[in-house]
Amino acid sequence: MFGSLFPKKKAIQVLQQRFDEIEVSGEVQGSGLDELRVELALRLRAHPGVENAYLPRLRYHGEDSFRNCLAIGLTHDLDLDQRESIAASCGGIIPLDILFLDALPDPISLKIESQCRRLFLGKLAFFECPLLVRKGSNAEMPANWPRAVSFWYFAATDYKEALVAAVAAARADGYVFDDVYEGKVAQLDPSKWWEEHVMVRWAEHADFFPSQERVEAVVATGGLFRGPNLGPVGAIDA
After folding, report:
1. Can you tell me the distance from the alpha carbon of 146 to that of 233, in angstroms, rounded to the nearest whole number?
2. With the C-alpha atoms ordered 22, 24, 27, 31, is the resulting torsion angle positive or negative?
3. Does the pLDDT at position 10 exceed 80?
4. Are 103 and 150 in contact (CB under 8 A)?
5. How sure is the predictor about 235, in pLDDT bands with cuts at 50, 70 and 90?
6. pTM of the predicted protein model
7. pLDDT by residue (tens digit) across 178-208?
8. What are 135-140's contacts with CB under 8 Å, separation 24+?
9. Within 10 A of 31 (CB to CB), how many other CB atoms are there?
10. What angle do CA 230, 232, 235 make, to 5 degrees?
11. Whole-angstrom distance, CA of residue 55 vs CA of residue 119
C-alpha cells in the first residue's frame, strides 16, 4: 500500500545529524499518506508521553535528496529508553527517520510545525456518507448494476466537509456520483462504532470493517475509508 511513497530500505533510522545542517521542505506526500497517518496514530496513541507528531521531508548536509521523517512532540521529557521504545513502535510501516521536536533547535521545530499538518487534529465529528453512484471506470462494481449505494466514512468538522471529501474519494476511485442516497449523511459516535454500528447494522459482514481502535485513529487524524457497496439500485428509482 505504501510502496508508491517510499523505496525499500531500512525501516527505522534514528536521526543522527547536525541540526544546523537540516533543510525542511514541507510534508511527506504520496497516495498512501492517509493510511500512513492512521497507522502511525495507532502506534503512537499507545504511548502516553506523545503529544503530537508531524511528517516532514528533510534534507541533510551533503545529501542530494530529501528523506521522509517522523517528528514527535512530547508532553514531557522522556529518557532514552522511552524514546527508543516510541521510535521502535513506529517501525515496519515504511522507512522513516525518527526525531523528537524537543531535541531540535527552535527554528527547525517551528518550520516543521508551520509546514506540516499535525498527526492528531483534535476533536472531529465522524460521518457516514451513503453515495448513489454509477460504475464509471471503477473495476469493482459489477457492469450490470445500473447504480449502487457506496458507503464512505470520514472524520470532519461538519457533514458538508465530510460529503465533499467522500464524493471526491468516490470519483477518484472511478465512480460517477449521482446523489446522496435518501438525502442523508449520518453522524456516528466513533466511541461506539463497533458495538452500536457494525454489530447492529453490519454484523454478517463485520470482517469487512475496520476495528474500533482503528476507527478511533481514523477520527483522530481526519481520515477516510470506504465501506461496502450495496446494489444493484435501479437507474431511475433509488
Report:
1. 6
2. negative
3. no
4. no
5. low
6. 0.84
7. 999 999 999 999 999 999 999 999 998 899 8
8. 135/174, 135/175, 135/176, 136/171, 136/174, 136/175, 136/176, 137/174, 138/173, 138/174, 138/175, 139/174, 140/229
9. 12
10. 125
11. 8
